Metallophosphoesterase
Amino acid sequence: MGPLFSVSRTRGGSDEYGGIFWYDHKRELVRPDPRVKQIFGHTPIEGPLKQETWVNINIECGCWIFDTEADDFVLLK
């Protein structure tokens, strides 16, 4: 419960926007707050995607982590 777990209508939910677990950068009109670097998952893409203020880790194509010191993705084996 709560805004962290919101599921937007674009993902089949009933909420106005998606929380950090369900945010979909391809289909949602709401943009993440640029003041906070955020990490999202669950969006079906071929691999992780890094933008200026947010990172999308696609958990469906492997187990990825984002190394904040290296500012890059690491695929866990």
Notes: The radius of gyration is 13 Å.
